[in-house]
Amino acid sequence: MNTLKVKHCSACKMPFGCGDSVEGKECWCNDFPPIFNPFDIEDCLCSNCFKTACSDKIDEFVATITPETAIGNKASFLPETASIIEGIDYYFEDGNYVFKPWFHLKRGHCCKSDCTHCPY
């Protein structure tokens, strides 16, 4: 039996089911990049607020990257994840995946495919 903990989002105050269940299973938020300092937020965020906060942090980081600083950036040293996240790693345009700069930075190098958002 998987019993979700009910928490209230520290941003919007809405109740949500935390994936860190009573049985100690991992939370859905672990699928996101580990880019938060635990002191950045009061407590857990709901999935919508977490995704927004994560995207904002990533956008702040990406804005500091130049082609000269892209290689060896800290995103390339994050643990690899098995999935990519819409709005964080990519978005859809005309039915096609368009990878965002964060996705490219995590890869750690240019793939030479003339990508729209290549930071290299």
From TrEMBL:
It holds the Pfam family DUF5522. InterPro entries: DUF5522 (IPR040807). It comes from the Bacteria. This is Cysteine-rich CWC. It comes from Flavobacterium granuli.
